[in-house]
Amino acid sequence: MEYKNRSNRQLRPDVCNSKIERRHPISPSVIVIGAGFAGIAAARALHDASFQVIVLESRDRTGGRVCTDYTFGFPVDMGASWLHGVCNENPLAPLIERLGLPLYRTCNDNSVMYDHDLERYALFDTDGNRVPQELVVKIGEVFEKILKATNEVRQECNEDISIQQAFSIVFERRPELKSEGLAHKVLQWYLCGMEGWFAADAETISLKCWDKEVLLPGGNGIMVLGYRPMINTLAKGLDIRLNHRVTEIFRHHNGVRVTTESGSTFVADAAIVTIPLGVLKSNTIKFEPRLPEWKEAAISDLGVGVENKIVMHFDKVFWPNVEFLGVVADTSYGCSSFLNLHKAINHPVLVYMPAGKLAQDIEKMSDEAAANFAFMQLQKILPGASPLIQYLLSRWGSDPNSLGSYSYDKVGKSHDSYEKLRIPIDNLFFAGEATSALYPGFVHGAYSTGLQAAENCRIRVLESYGEHDVFEPATGENTASVPLLISKM
Ligand SMILES: Cc1cc2nc3c(=O)[nH]c(=O)nc-3n(C[C@H](O)[C@H](O)[C@H](O)COP(=O)(O)OP(=O)(O)OC[C@H]3O[C@@H](n4cnc5c(N)ncnc54)[C@H](O)[C@@H]3O)c2cc1C
Questions:
Q1: Where, in this chain's numbering, is substrate bound (predicted)?
Q2: Whose CB has fewer CB within 10 Å in the chain, the N or C terminal residue?
Q3: With bands split at pLDDT 50, 70 and 90, how would you rate the model's confidence at 340?
């Protein structure tokens, strides 16, 4: 389907080689843009439904915001690492089960903001004093009460406001929920956790929509071997063109033409666009004709936040045997969290996870300065910390292939924007985490929108061929045979 400098008029690919295609001189063809979870899921499903599929990917690797790094000699995920919702309803469960991939549980219940199993945390102040566990429990309960009270504020407000503004209103009305000194710092740490969940600061998160996403049951489990085996399995046998950055997408009533940075041109019956929201916002891809106003508005209305990982490898474990270490501070910006990966993968590794403005500020630093910054946060609470032997860090906010970590609901904007971003335009279909109204920001959201786009695309293209039944449905799902393997040390 690749043509260099091809004329605009010829929109049909002329390659056909499958059994079914012999009955049809031309077989249905699709270009999938982006080889992350959404794109690979869509391509897999259409390939299995006997479509000709080409995947165009700007990076030199597949996976997108799923990126398992092996530099340390063992897998470490620099993007997604948790399966949120360890349950059979999770669209990824059949694949995880089929591959027998182990999970490590870090959160038992379905609470996002407040994990009731506080034995999992060790919090410290910036002088290295451990925060008494009773205080952590007490303030966790206060935090829950504040969130409940913001719900009342939400019901009264016609206009949307930010989570930060809602907290201020709650404190005015119910001063007993305000805390001071160490208790205030612990509260800031909880707020920091909420900001990390959305990769955005409380002043930008919508009160009306922050809890509109659907949380699957079963708690959260880390993919012990990383997400990479899943991507590799889904991508097997697909025609994926790496280092192909798409710059222009031209659509026509019976086809699409996609041009890359190097000038290569690809044509097909339809395209599935899985480009990250941050990249769509940057206007580096020209849509011809221009996308309708409502689609452009959805792209502009959704927020994209930044969360990064600074992964620190030590020669030995010198920290307490808990899931998370935390530093409490006067503001959520000053708080920190470290995931103790040792519990899941049995290597002495801590992962520092800044989000929002802090993550953006750290991205402005050199690699060395950023790693030092993370290490200094750790030294505040564990002055005897061993020196770092290796580190890895992500820059999802400035990486031109992502320009952000994941989407969130901005103040004053409608949650419907996710759905609007998903709606196809002619033979252009859209998928990716930011097109999932149910599971935005999740790998399973990206995956299920990829499958949905593939199915919608399959139906439309076959209708245009006057065929409905000759090709298999593009579900791409396999039945599960082994239960999810989750452990807890
Ligand atoms: C630090 C971090 C932690 C996260 N943690 C979790 C977690 O624990 N659990 C979870 O469920 N989710 C998590 N997420 C979110 C999850 O990674 C994403 O929701 C999901 O991977 C998005 O998949 P996607 O296919 O929509 O987009 P992507 O994976 O971003 O795929 C889009 C692809 O398009 C490519 N592309 C971009 N521009 C172009 C172009 N012009 N031409 C061609 N190709 C292009 C990109 O290179 C990329 O490969 C995390 C994300 C980050 C960044």
A1: 352
A2: C
A3: very high
